[in-house]
Amino acid sequence: MVIKELVIKNPTGLHARPASEFTRCASGFKSRITVNKPDGDPVNAKSIIMVLSQSFIMGSTVVLTADGEDEQLAVDTLSALVDSFSE
Questions:
Q1: Cα 7 from Cα 23, distance rounded (Å)
Q2: What pairing do the DSSP bridges indicate for beta strands 61-67 and 43-44?
Q3: pLDDT-based confidence at residue 23 (cuts at 50, 70, 90)
Q4: At what angle do helices 16-27 and 71-84 cross, to 10 degrees?
């Protein structure tokens, strides 16, 4: 299991377009991937509805967890994707 905390830097947060890209990317991995706020319950990172339900706004901390055969690649790729949203 790989766990990483990220901070949303995108001024508009993880709204519909970036959340869609995020879930599409997450769906490409075999690992079980979840996201949550530090004080929240983990939700399926492959579900756009579940990701949007977390209301990740600019400055939010996101706990990204992957468990499976490609867990490290999943966390690294998704972390880089979230960071790219601020550019």
A1: 17
A2: unpaired
A3: very high
A4: 160
Q: How far is CA 25 from CA 15, 31, 39, 47, 54, in A?
A: 15, 12, 25, 11, 18
Task: State both tokens at 51.
Answer: 């990701």
Gap between the Cα atoms of 65 and 48, Å rounded: 16
| pTM recorded for the entire structure | 0.93
Is pLDDT above 90 for 85? no
User: Which is it for strands 32-36 and 43-44: parallel, antiparallel or unpaired?
Assistant: antiparallel
pLDDT digit string, tens, across residues 39-80: 999 999 999 999 999 999 999 999 999 999 999 999 999 999
State the catalytic residue, choosing from 4, 9, 13, 15: 15
Quote the CA–CA distance of 23 and 29 in Å, as a whole number: 10
38: annotated active-site residue: no
